[in-house]
Amino acid sequence: MSYELSPTQQALSDQVRDFADTVVAPAAYEYDTKRSLPYGIIDQMGEMGLFGLPFPKEYGGQGSDYFSLCLAVEQLARVDQSIAVTLEAGVGLGIMPVYRRGTEEQKQEWVPLLASGKALSAFGLTEADAGSDAAGTKTTAELEGGDWVINGSKQFITNSGTDITRLVTVTAVTGQSTRPDGSVKKELTAILVPTPAAGFTVLPAYDKVGWHTSDTHPLLLDNVHVPEANLLGERGRGFANFVQTLDEGRIAFAALCAGAAQGCLDESVRYAKSRNVFGRAIGSNQHIAFKLARMQARVHSARLAYYDAALTMISGRPFKMEASIAKMIGSEAAMDNARDATQIFGGYGFMNENPVARHYRDSKVLELGEGTTEVQLMVIARSLGFAA
Amino acid sequence: MKIIVLVKQVPDTWGERSLDSATGALDRSAPDNIIDEISDRSLEVALRHKDETGAEVIVLTMGPASAAVALRHCLAMGADSAVHVLDDALAGADVTWTSSVLAAAITHEGFDMVIAGNESTDGRGGVIPAMVAEHLSVPHLTSLSEVHIAVDVVNGSRETDYGTLTVTARLPAIVSVTEQSPDARFPSFKGLLKAKKKPLATLSLSDLSINPETSFGSTGRSTITTVTRRPARTAGIKIVDSGNAGVELAEFLAAGRFV
Predict the structure, then answer these.
(1) Considering only CB atoms, which chain A residues are within 8 Å of B76?
(2) pTM
(3) What are phi and psi of B4, to 5 degrees?
(4) CATH fold label, A122-236
(5) Which residues are in the Electron transfer flavoprotein alpha/beta-subunit N-terminal domain (chain B) (predicted)?
(6) How many beta-carbon contacts under 8 Å exist across A and B?
(7) Class of domain A240-384
């Protein structure tokens, strides 16, 4: 048993790290302030093949695996969580559902385009009253003359309103049945909506606490017509089919968390060695060194947890609990490290241009997105036999 | 067309760089050795021409075993093959040795054009391209910010304090580029996979028919004979003003020949 990276995995990780340090990091503050996505950087990531890592070559992918995607996401998140989540959500939530559940025709149409990074896609599940509890979905889709007619609204949809967004997969209620006990069961179905589309409105971006560079919008669907053939997967299996996608997504999200925690540590170590107060480097004070030691322990644990979840998944074993553990402790490591890092930087840690300040704002969402910490605890508790 | 790009692995400029106090040479055992940025840019110039015309691009380095990592990086970026001149006898080689060995390796491979950076970030000699050109008896266009390669000619621009010079040379020729030349591409994942299968040849001095004893002789090479550490700084002189500080200060400056 080993968590040692193969030479190819190590080379990929090193290349993405180099790219992150030389291209992404210098632009991070500017785009965070402008609150816009740097399309040139996304294009370069596409050229490097990052959006196609886990897909086979016949669909325009790189023929690698999900773990490689995790390594790339981790390295990007060290310097810019927004860029990392654009990749993570673009692949995990945007492309993966089409690749896993699409017909051959749908896969041929969408996967090569999206895997090239020339276009982005999004997954529209969350609504005002539906998130982890997908049964609250109010968006509807009805078949009319060979078209799905979709009405409703979605919330917090990553990559849904960029200049290069070409596909949004939405979940919608397509009917309902009555259970034997008399309760109503909604039939939830996933449908591909190529964008732009008549009646499909991207509402203004959210005023978020962090992740300013990442594109996140509410969506309005008002009589949006798409062909019946745009049904993704089976009718009525719109949520069940994507639970696996969401579980996988948690692992890449956990890699993002580990990267963020590492970024906070890297900045802090550098500063603790170079910042002199009272005639010596602040790192020579035990209270700073111990803080850094704790940060390192958190990064190490977070990384091992996501490696373990990813390798469990790739080996074909059940990984739901492992993914939840990795996501939960990773997000807590990032949040805790961001807090410690800003403390080590003192007043400079409160300046927006400081990367650790950005990590501080960005990291909160790590405990919320892709299933809150409480949802992860539910999953872990269920693995212990509790109906949490 | 066959283009040879000279590349060099150097200590990361962000890290601590130190000299080995025993030999006076750069300590290359430091952990963060990376490909010199100017080497990346040189390769980018060659790869752009390859993208357009399908030219063959070979990367060449002379360096310790660790330099193979830099060559693999170049192969991942898109170079077709790599040549590594590796020989213990070359440790501490100066520019004279280095240029003659590189010229021998270039001749060994055959070439239409050689592209190099104008100077490395570690040695900063800035003379290797010119010396290699002399060994090869080919024209040398130095310090170009732009390079345009045609079938049998290379044109370029050189920025100077007085203006921009447009220069040209018939091939075969050697050009050196400055950091104004375009940013290098990042290797793609497919490039990384392909790099593993591309040829990387290692040549020793005997492969190049060079006998270090006779070929270089005892002259024409600079060697470090002794190394003395810079003395530690001592406490300075503190002048407390008790009425004649101005005179004392002037005397101090005069004694030290500062004025």
Answers:
(1) 11, 15
(2) 0.83
(3) -105, 130
(4) Butyryl-CoA Dehydrogenase, subunit A; domain 2 (2.40.110)
(5) 23-212
(6) 37
(7) mainly alpha
Q: Is A240-384 the same fold as A122-236? A: no
What is the band of B218 on the pLDDT scale with cuts at 50, 70, 90?
Answer: low
What's the complex ipTM? 0.71
Query: Taking 60 as the threshold, does the pLDDT of residue B110 lie above it?
Result: yes
Handedness of CA B212, B215, B219, B222 (dihedral sign): negative
CATH of the domain at B192: 3.40.50.620
- Alpha-carbon gap: A11 to the closest alpha carbon of chain B (Å): 7
Asked if residue B258 is part of any domain, the answer here is no
Q: Which residues of A touch B189 (CB under 8 A)?
A: 12, 48-50, 52-53, 62, 64, 68
* CA A249/CA A85 separation, integer angstroms: 11
Catalytic residues of A: 370
Q: Which of B185, B190, B192 sits opposite A11 (nearest CB)?
A: B192
Written out in words, the top-level CATH class of the domain with range A7-120 is mainly alpha
Give B-chain residues touching A44 at CB under 8 angstroms: 186
Residue B255 inside a domain? The answer is no
pLDDT in tens, A149-181: 999 999 999 999 999 999 999 999 999 888 888
Pair of tokens at residue B24: 């006076």
